[in-house]
Amino acid sequence: DVRVAMTAEREGQGARRKRIIAVGSGKGGVGKSTVSANLAVALARAGHKVGLVDADIYGPSQARLLGTEGQRPVARDKKLIPVESRWGVSVLSMAHLAEPGQAIAWRGPMAGNALVQMLEGDWTGVDVLIVDLPPGTGDIQLTMLQRFKPDGAVIVSTPQDLALLDATRAIALFDKGGVPVIGLVENMAGYVCPHCGETSDPFGIGGAQAAAEERGCPFLGRIPLDISIRRESDEGVPPAAGDGPRAPAFAAIAAGVTA
Ligand code: ADP
User: Domains in the chain, start-ordered, CATH in brackets?
Assistant: First the structure.
């Protein structure tokens, strides 16, 4: 019976409901976008069907990070079809919607509209949707969290940012929005020597983990400051995609996020 089969198919799709995971930070420049991209790639490597929305409207970086610059999404049935990266992650970013090389100087309502269109894109089949939030903890972030309520949130912070309590504000933002905090990723933790590859820890290790857990936020892992991360990111090859030294750390973080 065709009708039974169709109903079963619809129910099957419903059963694989997509989880929305927001990635936020207390301030900019801590590596939130880098962690979002590599978390998405690591989840795809672990067998998930992953989508990524670059909600950083005025400073989109996901097209560069995932190597999808120059690709343009098409629309079908008024829904944007995400762009496919080489890493098994489909993506929508303002970088794909704005004219290449043009500054994004849109007014608030237009930018908000673009964000809604990306979140309401055709994410059929995707079981994890990562949302790279704009930096900071303002009203825009809260409105977005309330309208497209994520199932959980990941906070990215540097050791210094934790000490300065910026990360605490990010935790508070998600608490206020009623979004469970899955955990904290400590980025730029320790320094990898580009010559010998050894990691040194000028500020000691363990402080961030303790500080996070003190605030009731589980610890997901740490990524050192490593020139190869910046270099590969700039080339559109996420370190989580290869067999380099950073891939296992991102795989472990991905496992913690879906545990
Ligand atoms: P945010 O999204 O928080 O503004 P980005 O992800 O854009 O931060 O990172 C800011 C800069 O720092 C980028 O040039 C990026 O390549 C670099 N970066 C991020 N994390 C690391 C790291 N662990 N090691 C080296 N460079 C990093």
Answer: 16-258 (3.40.50.300)
Q: Is 18 annotated as a binding residue?
A: no
Task: Match 């930096």 to its residue by tokens.
Answer: 135
CA of 111 to the centre of ligand 1 (A): 24
CA distance 12 to 209: 40
ipTM score assigned to the predicted complex: 0.99
Of the candidates 102, 101, 121, 137, which has an alpha carbon nearest to the alpha carbon of residue 52?
121
Distance in angstroms (rounded) separating the CA atoms of residues 226 and 91: 25
Ligand-binding site membership of 236 (annotated): no
Mention every residue, 6+ apart, whose C-beta is less than 8 A from residue 92: 51, 52, 53, 54, 73, 80, 82, 83, 118, 121
Q: Which residues contact 136 (CB under 8 A, 6 or more apart)?
A: 25, 26, 27, 28
Cβ-contact 101, 129 below 8 angstroms: no
State the pLDDT at residue 11.
47
Residue with more model confidence, 199 or 34:
34
Q: Is the pLDDT of residue 208 over 80?
A: no
